[in-house]
Design goal:
The complex is a heterodimer of chains A (523) and B (484).
Chain A: H1 2-11, H2 45-56, H3 75-87, H4 109-115, H5 118-121, H6 133-150, E1 154-156, H7 162-179, E2 188-192, H8 198-205, E3 209-213, H9 223-229, E4 234-239, H10 252-261, E5 265-270, H11 282-285, E6 289-292, H12 294-297, E7 312-314, E8 326-330, E9 335-339, H13 356-393, E10 412-415, H14 417-423, H15 427-436, E11 443-444, E12 453-456, H16 464-482, H17 487-490, H18 503-508, H19 514-522
Parallel strand pairs in A: 2-3, 2-4, 4-5, 5-6
Antiparallel strand pairs in A: 1-7, 6-7, 8-9, 10-12, 11-12
Helix pairs in contact in A: 1-16, 4-13, 6-13, 7-8, 13-16
Chain B: H1 6-14, H2 28-37, H3 68-79, E1 89-90, H4 104-109, H5 112-115, H6 127-144, E2 148-149, H7 156-171, E3 175-179, H8 184-193, E4 200-204, H9 215-224, E5 229-235, H10 247-256, E6 260-265, E7 283-287, E8 303-307, H11 311-316, E9 321-326, E10 333-338, H12 344-347, H13 360-397, E11 402-403, E12 414-419, H14 425-434, E13 437-438, E14 441-442, E15 452-457, H15 464-480
Parallel strand pairs in B: 1-13, 3-4, 3-5, 5-6, 6-7
Antiparallel strand pairs in B: 2-8, 7-8, 9-10, 11-12, 12-15, 14-15
Amino acid sequence: MTQFLNFLGHMEGNKVFKQSKWPKTLIFEKSTPGRIGYQVPELSSEEEKVLEKAKRTISSDLLRENSPNLPEVSELEVVRHFTRLSQMTYGVDSGFYPLGSCTMKYNPKICDTAASMIDAQNIHPYQPEDTIQGSLQIMYELAKWLAELSGMAGVTLQPAAGAHGEYTGIMILRKYHESQNNLAIKNEIIVPDSAHGTNPATVSMCGFKTIVIPSNNDGCVDIDALRSSVTNKTAGMMLTNPNTLGIFEPNIKEITDIIHDVDGLMYYDGANFNAIMGKVRPGDMGFDIVHFNIHKTFATPHGGGGPGAGPVGVVSHLIPFLPVPSVAYNSTSDFYYLNYNHKQTIGKVRSYFGNFSILLRAYTYILRLGQTGLTRVSEMANLNANYMKAQCARIDGFSVPYGENSSCMHEFVLSAKKLYKETEISALDISKYLLDNGLHPPTVYFPLIVPEALMIEPTETEPKEIIDDFIQVIRNISKLAYSGKKEDIQNAPINTSVGRIDDVKAARDPIISYRMLKKQKKN
Amino acid sequence: MKRSSIQEVIPALHSIQHLSHPFLPQTESQIKTMLKTMNVSSIEDLYSIIPKELRFEGKLNLPKTHSEQETLRKIQSVLQKNVTTDDLISFLGAGIYPHFIPSVVPSIVNRSEFITSYTPYAPEVSQGMLQGLWEYQSMIAELTQLDLVNSSMYDFATTLGEAALMSTRATKKNTFLVPEYIQPERLNTLITYTTGPKLKIVTYPCDKLTGQADLEKLTSIIELKRNQISGVYIENPNFWGVIEEEIVQIGELTHDQNSLFIIGFDPISLGLLRSPGELGADIAIGDGQPLGLPMNFGGPLLGLFAVKNDKKLVRAMPGRIIGLTTEINSSNRAFTMTLQTREQHIRRERATSNICTNNALCALASTVYLSLIGPHGLKSLAETSLAKAHHLAERLSMFDEISSPHFTGPFFKEFVFTLNSPSLMDSFTKFMRTRNIIPGLSLIKDFPSLGSSYLASVTEMTTSSDMELFLDTVLEFFRTHGGK
Ligand SMILES: Cc1ncc(COP(=O)(O)O)c(C=O)c1O
């Protein structure tokens, strides 16, 4: 019955979902001179006197002439403006968000509660160690748990995001080769063509050359191509496993052996860690360096683009290279401390010690699920993905070009190539029509090796009913496209705050600040 | 819930272990149905592709599952070992500052649509977040008086690294000049970031008296390295809290070399001080933490990155950028991510940076903060910090045993003070600690030439009574420790 009702809902002019369409008035345009939304406490008369004197110490050409052109709005106006903006924003709490590679699972509220505790927030990083024992303990324990989950010997919690973890990891790799006096020769890093863009971008930032190798017909590393690309110049290889197609590389041991044979290091991009917790560990697969995407696997919210955290784990012989400081524990005195004593450290990759409030959320999440819960998380993530894959692959116009007949892990890549060829309905059109149905689209056109790619990651937290709804919409799209009733799809989205957007105009005449808008209006 | 599952709920009530975890909705019978649809006999079979010898068969050494109550109790008990700045009289700053956060900021930022959304890859359902980030870019542009702002980076230190890399991309030169007196962690991060692309870092000193850039030395370094300099970096106010009075000349020297001039700033100071744009900056960077973000033991922070409006510079910029445009079929406003051909997902190994996840929610928090405080509020906040800092510096100067401020240059909300007797530093710090006072950041390790010095920071959070208590304690210390 539920199915039938939803089905009708989607078919009947998309009556199910309507997003708010507030006027896009800028907060600057709501400004009324004389209003204020927060008042700074007044100075004492003594301080007023000091102020006049203090200002005279600064020469007038170093003082600002005009106050910055910020809006002048009352407290309610601010609240209402941003509340309306939130109503024009779609999050996991709004609905299904199967954005492949991003692991948009439910972000438990308990983690927000933990992160908003005063004992966590009002701590300055330069406080004496005896006043930060709680924060240090949390970091110490979290690092240990992440090491256990990944099979690594040491973990740094400093990196601010996945890509920053990659950066830290590849700098560690660099320092390792430098310590072996090999850096002059070892200047290449191998990256599969299915890799995320951050991998090759990181390679360049760290001063290496990217060697791209093609995937084989199964979507996995082409072992022959790998062998022919590996030379004594190979410093290492970056790999996601399961890879960005959601496929586990069955020959992973052979791959890691090939790289290790030339004294290269294996880097594990942990974006897809949600698939394997408690089942298989990067350390046991032969990886030397691992990053985690805390904001994916460990359920910390993504906040419209960040902040996240990207801890990095390494095997024991790479521990001396980790960024400083690490968090250490003296069991005799029961005291946590910051250890700067890493002889061959890569140095600093950022200020301070890590994105603490994000790490605290991950700590909370791990406690809440525990050892058995985390394993179950991965199992259910894979079950949901495989179920969706089996259903979607049967829909006319769609296929799963890689791994159609074997199990995927936590995500899979659906191709709308046939549908596009036969009906001109593209992956982009599909994504827009999904929006009209109140569903966030999958990642589209990635990985680059799949034409008309829809990369789907349902995560473990979605009920079967929601997953079935999504599959039903894909079926509807196929039916509409093949029966020639394509307008609804091609005109989508209409139920969202705006319709399709002029990206070409945005790039041709960039207006990226109110200052530019004002100048443009003048001309 | 589906109606058909009602019968299945009843047996589940008898055996608790069959109830799913609150985060894991699939019931046992749904799992069976799903497996059957797929022609797979068990979940375990989904892992059959993984070679047996690689499988992890042991038991992970992790905590057991905790209930929500147990989890919160445990976290509270651990965090209680912290002493917060609420229970200290702290003059710590040096990059992270305690400022008051109006209640509106967390209330808005914690709205679940914002917090649980991803990078706005589907712009039609993300207009709110996109507009918020565009307004963020706009406000930072107004503060800095530079038109181009990206939609956030990780923190000040990594932003400095990115600015240095951008300067080589834009100028094709490879020597970067920085003050030797910037926050050491910031300098060390810069050194790491410039290692791969082989950018040479050359430091220049400050004048020992004024605490400002030593213009003579800097000029001769620029002479020596002419035609190689990609950029010159300076902070205003600098690490000592001192305002750089020759900053405009330094900018001119830099531009004479066709190099980029990069200014690091404290956003609060821009309520009072001339903006980086007016001072001649090509790039302005900083940390947005003072704009409504908790200190959070050092993260997450907010890397601010603003650039002069110049076609060549836009293309060299790192980070995500939100643009204002229209719908395709109308003139209605719409926001979207733009100029993406610079970024890793398109340009891959030739991208301007590898950054992907940034600090968008922190950017939103600062937007809410700046909307609340407005131009006049920001000015009075800057003035409050200035007045209170000067007040403290002056009061400290009344002690014969203290030189305050250490430098003669004008200062904003931070200043260095020095104990005239170096042997007293340890006992001074310890004595203050017993009274829950942190007199500032000790500079002895990183800047030993300054002697027994502290960098003290004062904001609107420093009350007069805190200040008096600190001064009384200083007096008591010198009485009991026989200051000369
Ligand atoms: C496969 C893969 N690698 C790396 C990253 C980069 O991680 P982050 O966005 O946290 O920097 C992502 C996520 O965007 C990813 O999906």
